[in-house]
Every structure is written in C-alpha cells, then in structure tokens.
Amino acid sequence: MTLVLENVQKAFGDVPVLRGIDLTIVPGQMICLIGASGSGKSTLLRCMNLLEPIDDGRILLDGVEISEPGHDPQPVRQRIGMVFQSYNLFPHMTAVENVMLAPRRVHGQSRAALRPRVEPLFARFGLADRMEHYPDQLSGGQQQRVAIIRALAMRPEIMLFDEITSALDPELVGEVLDVLRHLRGEGMTMVLATHEMGFARELADTVCFLDQGRILEAGPPSQIFETPQEARTRAFLSRVL
C-alpha cells in the first residue's frame, strides 16, 4: 500500500500548521518525523488517517484520493492505524477487552472468535500474563504496548505513531521502542513522530525534519544527522543531540 501526500496544507483558524507537505510512504518503509514542538508533526499524522481534514492538496491511498470531502474515513482508518501519546485505554475494561473492542464494533466479530487472534499479539509483546489486568494495574510502558496491540488487532497496513514514548518515564521508553524494532523487523510500514534521535538514526529509512509546517529537509539518517544541509536542521540537532 502506498500513501502519497501532495501539497497538503492545514490551518487552525488563521494559524497555518502545514504549509505544502509532499511525502510518499511505500510498503515496508519507516519514516521518522523530527522537529521542534509545534512544527506540525502530530497534525501531519492526524491528516494521514483523516482525523483532521486538510484545507488544500491531496492524499492518495493506492492512487485513490481519500482527502476529498465526503470520503468515508472508516475504511481508511482500518488500513492506517494510529497510536497516540496518551494510551486512551478504557479504565473499566481489561487489557484484552480494550484490544477486542474495535474489531467487535467495526467487524462485528465475537469475543470467542477474536480471542485466539489477539492472544498471540499479547504474547509477542511480552504481555501474555497481563491480558486480564485493568489499565491502572499496568505500568505506563505496558499500557502503551496494549495501545499498540489494540491498533495491530485491526490488521492495518500502515502504522502511525505520535510521540508514543513522550509520556513515559525514561526507564520505560526502551520497552516500547523494542516493540517498534520488532515491527520493523516484520516489515511493518511505519511513520513516527519522535524525539528519540538515537532510534531514528538506528532504524529509519528516511528522516524528515519539519520546521514551521514544512518538510525542510529529508533523507537517510546518515545524511540528516551527520551532514544536514539546512541551517535550521543543524541548529535543531545541536540542541537535541
């Protein structure tokens, strides 16, 4: 599945947030979005799976424009999963109930039919013994892993991650990044907004530096981190590395 953004623009009121984004995501690719807070990374991700309507430009999924007004977003969101900074787990449901909720509602599948499919996901990410725990019985890292499993249970073709380690204590960040490494190894197509520069340098195919709603510079990690071309990129990296 190929996702293409052409001249995507988005404003909130009079404040422009995305100023002409061009980006192509091909199967198996990992793209890391870096940049200061407010540069447009989160909004860009939300536009990709139609959580935010765009003001101009086009978004195409396998050649079909999905950004035109009136396009049904639900089939798109089933193919493009998203995990947010906050876990957004329902506190009155166990981990496994949280994971099964969307497939039950969207696909009409029963608990009995879903259980054998989601149990291996919990096992794969080290949570087989936490399936019946409620969110307040889980650490932050465990809750974020449940949120990732919940998105994967919909069998998406692309996964979007919005600063998913930013709300975690430093000692818990590694266990969530290990999940992303696992997905990378399986060939999952991913786009991440992240402040984890070491992770981006290690695993990304392409790193995009966003500044004031534009992709100011994009390229392989070696180029962006070692020989950035733009003064703004160099200034940003000098502060965060």
Structure write-up:
It is a single chain. By secondary structure, the protein is of the alpha/beta class. Helices cover 39% and strands 25% of the residues. The chain contains 9 helices and 10 strands. Helix 3 packs across helix 4 and helix 5 runs parallel beside helix 6 (170-185). The model has no long low-confidence stretch (mean pLDDT 94).
Instruction: Note the total helix count.
Output: 9
Strand residue content: 15-25%
Mean pLDDT: 94
**Largest sheet, if any?**
6 strands, mixed
Give the quaternary arrangement of the chains: single chain
Give the class from helix and strand content and strand pairing. Answer: alpha/beta
| Number of extended strands | 10
Features:
single chain; 241 residues; alpha/beta; 6-stranded mixed beta sheet; 4-stranded antiparallel beta sheet; 9 helices; globular
